[in-house]
Input
Amino acid sequence: MAEAKILIVDDNPDLIAVLKVRLESFGYEVVVAEDGVKCLEKASSGKPDLILLDVLMPEMDGFQALKKLKEDDLMKTIPVIMLTAKDKLDDVAKANALGAADFIVKPFDYRIMVEKIRKILKN
Output
């Protein structure tokens, strides 16, 4: 049985594939979405335990998706880790203000990412 369900939201299929394999190797169940709109659909129907959410995406960016997640009574308690290639302090502050649980700058060490996930999920 999987430890927890993680929703990966990113428009880069290569990164999704790598993250999926890595997280599944740690026992997590993984679902994926390619943009913010699909993120909201999958989060509301699948109720993941945690969301890894890219900032720069088509249709709806990560900040917009995070805002909508946190405004929804059914999804607002899902912890969200923002993933981005941007490392501006303004972006970190914005993510925190919108309710992100953490912020990871790409490229990142997968071991650090998994430790952050475990800490947030407390397992």
